[in-house]
Amino acid sequence: MSELKLFNSLTRQLETFTPVHAGEARVYTCGPTVYNYPHIGNMRAYVFADTLGRVLSYKGYKLTHVINITDVGHLTDDADAGEDKMEKMAAEKAQSIWDIARHYTEAYWADIKALNIRQPAHWSIATDYVPAMIDYAVSIADTHCYELDSGLYFDTSTVAHYGSLARVKTEDGEGRIEEVDGKRHAADFAIWRKTPAGETRQMEWDSPWGKGAPGWHLECSVMSEALLGLPFDIHTGGIDHREIHHPNEIAQNQARCGSDHSGAQFWMHNNFLIERSGKMSKSSGEFLRVQLLIDKGFHPLAYRLMCLQAHYRSELEFSWEGLQAAFVRLKRMVMGVEKIREFTTSRPDGNSADDAGFLSSFEEEISNDLNTSNALAIFEIVLGRTDVKPSERLKVLQAMDAVLGLNVLVVNRTDLRIRPKAAIITEAEIETALTARKEARAAKDFAKSDAIRDDLIAKGVEVMDGDPLGWDWKLDI
Ligand code: AMP
Ligand code: ZN
């Protein structure tokens, strides 16, 4: 078995994974703030965390994965500026925060399912943990915090090497603007935000510092410690969290368990999905959500494949052409599996898959900081190795797909045919037209067959005569 090497953002190096508890892997992933739909960039963070979890399971660790749902406390700025995202959206929509949270949590879970992301052991909901957050804040208040009119603040000078994850110097709190009167250091952050006098918030709780709500950074420290214990193995999030949110979690964890420990052995971050025309902004009209991809006729697993084609630490540029290419690749994989299935009865013999060492090469790739792009290439090599017994190839592919999560042994050709929402013709109508065209061609009535084809083209359907993959038609997107 290859050693599992993972890139640790703390040291900016590849390190060998050795679990805190033998045979186990405990992973915490910063979840979404459920004030709006997640965009596909957000979902890249969960495809990454899911792939990591699948690799850990593949390598035999008993995985405990926690993803939180932030339904309180995340301000419009990751530091202490701005309004609570949930309060703001609730006011805009004139709905209760609880309704907003429920709606967007469900939308997020629908995307999780569509991308074949496995369910974590726990979805921890921040508002369920407020009493635990208050207890936690009390436990560190005297030694690490100070109170201002606006809340209880964490004094970042009370822990060693504050901000080392972000490579920020404590003194200058690089890139931070001091927004709050009386803060001792620019990087200090609120762990409890008091409700301003004379105001009532939709979400507020009593605390030793008066009515208020927890700070966002506090939530993750409390939930990770409560569900995984300190220290745990791996903490994940998008690369933006390396700058403020995770250094602040680390400071709190240090306050709890000593300056030597950040709370997790590994801090891992996925890089961003980039989209240059601004469609990933949640305020743009046609904003890039998984549902939009489906509405345009893409199977959501094509997006998962697009993510896996890039290394999680590289930026990935989104384009419709790129997604189309990933979709074609996914179709080829699904059809490749279907072909092998046919061969299990028609040509059952061949060499042993073990001799080819597919699984050991695959494991080597995924153990090298999740090199999914090379792992995909090995998957496709197996698809093409007609000299190996089909039944063994299927077994190998199944084992690999447990890591890739593309579901290619379950999804079939028909599942991949998703009609764009805007299409003006149904699949049944297309099939009827194609049958009529076949009949016209058989009767050598080429004028009729051309007329049918032209009519289909006018309706956005391209007829694919002689397609090497055997597809009859595709929608023009
Ligand atoms: P949020 O709901 O804003 O807390 O974000 C949820 C997750 O998505 C976090 O882990 C972010 O770091 C991550 N994220 C945000 N934007 C992107 C992006 N464009 N590409 C990849 N990950 C992102
Ligand atoms: Zn978090």
Write a concise keyword list for the protein shown above.
477 residues, Four Helix Bundle (Hemerythrin (Met), subunit A), four-stranded antiparallel beta sheet, five-stranded parallel beta sheet, Rossmann fold, 43% helix, binds adenosine monophosphate, alpha/beta
Description:
With 477 residues, this protein is α/β, with parallel strands linked by helices. The protein folds into three domains: 275 residues, HUPs (Rossmann fold), CATH 3.40.50.620; 119 residues, Up-down Bundle (Four Helix Bundle (Hemerythrin (Met), subunit A)); 56 residues, no CATH class. The strands form five sheets. A five-stranded parallel β-sheet has the order 5-4-3-10-11, with helices on both faces. The chain is globular. It binds adenosine monophosphate and zinc ion.
Layout of secondary structure:
Layout: E1 5-8, E2 13-16, E3 24-29, H1 40-58, E4 62-69, H2 85-93, H3 97-114, E5 122-125, H4 130-144, E6 145-148, E7 151-154, E8 189-194, E9 212-214, H5 216-228, E10 232-238, H6 245-257, E11 264-270, E12 273-274, H7 290-295, H8 300-309, E13 316-317, H9 320-346, H10 353-356, H11 358-367, H12 372-384, H13 390-404, H14 413-416, H15 427-442, H16 446-458, E14 461-463, E15 473-475
Helix pairs in contact: 1-8, 1-13, 2-3, 4-5, 5-6, 8-9, 9-13, 11-12, 12-13, 15-16
Bound molecules: adenosine monophosphate (AMP) and zinc ion.
Zinc ion (ZN) binds next to loops.
